[in-house]
Amino acid sequence: MANKQLDFAWQGDLPAVIAKAGGLNTRLIAADGLLASNYLVVPADSPAKTLDDLKGKKVAQFKGTNLQLATARTLKRAGLQDRDFRTINMDFPTAAAALASRDIDGAWLSSTAFELQKSGVGRIIYDTRAVDARLTRQTHVLVDGDFERQHPQIVQKVVDGLVKTAAWVSAPENENTAFELWAKSGTPVDSLRAEQGALSLERRYSPRLDEFFVDRYRATVRESRELGLLRGDVDVDGWVEPKYVNAAIDRLGLQALWPAYDADNRPQAR
């Protein structure tokens, strides 16, 4: 994006915030993957059952991703800090291997957690979404700011496609096909379904840039500054541009499909 080699990108909240604070000219134009949970996994035979049980132990996390910030806010909610653990930076495959070999005592993971649990390697002891929706991670589609200014019709066409896709995914009759398509990326269908849990696909893939979305990005900015991850500030309200999604939803007659949610993840009146 910085070198103008891309016009659009799909990203998690933390990397995009850091880039924006560093001066990257982007606009957020659609939500695309809300309420992703973090899972704290321990070796299957570990006696640990809570966060406190791992204090002083070796716990892995993938730093530099939006999982890092979600982990930090989870620990803060529990009255803990990163320094309460012997934190080790590992990507997901390395952390999974380290759990299997008992080289670490725990790891913060995404849907990989369910594969480890099913295989008997690990056991999930903490699910952030089950505790509080505000502990989750969000993803979005963004566009280069200059491209948006020069080609708003193309941006609208792209967002129309995203909204149509979200509507297809949200239809119950397409659920099995959607999971089978996603599994082609390498994550088994069983793990994808377990990660989805009771959350509806309609909620997970709502493209709306509503108050829940905006509030979560404000929180990401605030918490990133507290952790010293930002060089500058980000005006989230000026960064988010909902007009393309709203126009697509209106034009396609999908107003009733996705309610807007407030900052506490409660649906507002349709």
Write the layout of secondary structure elements.
Layout: E1 8-12, H1 13-21, E2 26-31, E3 39-43, E4 58-61, H2 66-77, E5 86-89, H3 92-100, E6 106-109, H4 112-118, E7 122-127, H5 128-131, E8 139-144, H6 145-150, H7 152-170, H8 175-183, H9 189-196, H10 201-204, H11 211-226, H12 236-239, H13 243-251
Parallel strand pairs: 4-5, 4-6
Antiparallel strand pairs: 1-8, 2-8, 3-6, 3-7
Helix pairs in contact: 1-11, 4-9, 7-13
Task: Describe it.
Helices cover 43% and strands 15% of the residues. By secondary structure, the protein is an alpha/beta fold. Helix 7 packs across helix 13 (243-251). It is globular, with a radius of gyration of 19 Å. The model has no long low-confidence stretch (mean pLDDT 94).
The largest sheet, given as strand count, sense and whether it forms a barrel, is:
5 strands, mixed
> Approximately what portion of the residues adopt beta-strand conformation?
5-15%
Oligomeric state of this protein: single chain
Helix content: 40-55%
Class by SSE composition: alpha/beta
Provide a count of the helices: 13
SSE order, one letter for each helix or strand: EHEEEHEHEHEHEHHHHHHHH
- Strand order across the biggest sheet? 5-4-6-3-7
Shape: globular
